[in-house]
Specification:
With 429 residues, the protein is mainly α. The chain has a domain of 137 residues. Helix content is 72%, strand content 3%. It has 20 helices and two strands. A two-stranded antiparallel sheet has the order 1-2. The N terminus is likely disordered.
Length: 429
């Protein structure tokens, strides 16, 4: 229950304030700057510090947030006999890093008194990210719509999430804060354009819809899904088809659906154009041939997908077996089975319930959380979702922070309501 998450504690009161907010923004910045290895070490070290500092009830709630993914890892590790040790180690790393992000983000959120300073710092960090992306785009000589600079100029997805509080500030505030919000928002939107990345563009549109409240209630979420479908259908009609030559962002946007559909085409050009679908097709073959036990619980950590032929990238590089898939649902299906896919989807959707503010489901925090959930599910179809090595680390921390902050607010609201009721009874009202 929310009322058990953060019991009154003199130590907790002494630890609140700048510390958790600074640590929260620091970890988001680290997820952007640091390579994944050093980031994992930093996550573990800071989490250990907060586990020592935090009340047992808060620690228990943090552990429960990551528990579904930890249980999946344990059973998949038990089923990994015969798989390559290196691939097993990488899968343990990805799953463990996810648990670290969720637990640390939650503990930082549950120890934050209010969200304004944290969201202000988040928007400034997003502005810095956007500025760096734009500068790098100029340095590499990028062209809008070209893919050559996509990796080096891509705006981190954390920056996209800041669209919600910036739109709120532009609408509800005045003076210098409104001007600052408009400037940061313009900077982020320019960075989205020069990122030349489909997932960044789609995530930006998702956060705008989340800000509009289309994911805040069940009916609105259904309406939001319909709106997204209509917009995608209209966009698909006006985008150019691939006619040979270099791929552009507009062409890749049009081909997004085709790329995730299963394909068994072994033609080299078609294989590359529909690579995600080719991966998924061979993963589906592997699943179809698996035993009932492996269909339910997976082939274990370190399992690889046989592509059926050697794929040659260059004279020096070729491969046949894939330990990682772009489609995260197939990645989970192969490693963790049908049960794992169900747990993953339900856990991601459950984040929305855990992070719901009792008094206001249209708060910026609530809309950010719901937009994040949609982005995670979309990202799972194309870049492995929460198991991605680099792209979603900051999002996982931010998501867990929002849940932790909401849990604290719900606790405080319960305490205040109980106190008001007690006073009313004492006065005979």
């Amino acid at each position: 229950m929310a009322t058990r998450i953060l019991p009154p504690s003199p130590f907790d009161a002494a630890a609140l304030g700048l510390g958790p907010v600074a640590a929260f923004i620091g970890m988001l910045a680290a997820s952007w700057i640091l390579p994944t290895g050093p980031l994992t070490v930093l996550l573990a070290a800071v989490l250990l510090l907060y586990l020592v500092m935090s009340p047992a009830a808060a620690n228990g709630a943090a552990i429960r947030l990551a528990l579904p993914f930890a249980l999946m890892t344990i059973w998949a590790l038990a089923l990994s006999s015969g798989n390559a040790g290196y691939d097993i180690g990488k899968d343990v790393w990805y799953a463990g890093k996810l648990c670290l992000c969720l637990m640390l983000g939650f503990l930082l959120g549950v120890r934050s008194v209010e969200s304004r300073r944290a969201l202000d710092a988040l928007t400034l960090l997003a502005g810095v990210m956007a500025l760096v992306s734009i500068i790098l785009w100029f340095v590499v000589g990028g062209q809008v719509g070209e893919l050559t600079s996509e990796e080096s100029t891509r705006l981190p997805l954390i920056g996209v999430v800041a669209i919600v509080p910036l739109l709120d500030r532009s609408r509800h505030e005045s003076g210098i804060r409104r001007v600052q919000a408009a400037a940061l928002l313009a900077l982020i939107l320019i960075a989205v354009v020069v990122s030349n990345s489909r997932i960044t563009i789609i995530a930006s549109a998702t956060m705008i819809l989340a800000w509009a409240g289309l994911f805040s209630r069940t009916r609105r979420a259904l309406l939001g899904g319909v709106v997204v479908g209509i917009l995608l259908a209209l966009l698909w009609q006006v985008l150019p088809e691939y006619a040979g030559g270099e791929l552009t962002v507009a062409v890749k946007l049009r081909r997004s659906l085709e790329e995730v559909l299963l394909t068994d085409n072994f033609d080299t050009t078609q294989m590359i154009l529909n690579w995600r679908g080719f991966e998924a097709y061979n993963a589906q073959l592997m699943f179809d041939r698996a035993s009932a036990l492996k269909k339910l619980f997976g082939n274990g950590l370190g399992a690889t997908v046989d592509l059926g032929q050697e794929v040659i990238l260059s004279d020096e590089a070729s491969f046949r077996y894939l330990p990682i898939l772009h489609n995260g649902f197939y990645y989970i299906l192969i490693k963790y089975g049908v049960i794992g896919v169900m747990i993953y989807i339900l856990s991601v959707l459950r984040f929305g319930l855990l992070g719901k503010l009792a008094s206001n489901n249209m708060s910026a925090e609530d809309r950010m959380l719901r937009g994040l959930i949609v982005i995670i599910l979309l990202a799972t179809t194309v870049i492995t979702g929460l198991y991605n090595k680099t792209e979603l680390n900051g999002l996982a921390i931010l998501l867990a922070w929002l849940i932790g902050f909401a849990q604290r607010r719900r606790y405080e609201e319960t305490v205040h309501s109980a106190a008001a009721l007690s006073r009313a009874r004492g006065s005979g009202v």
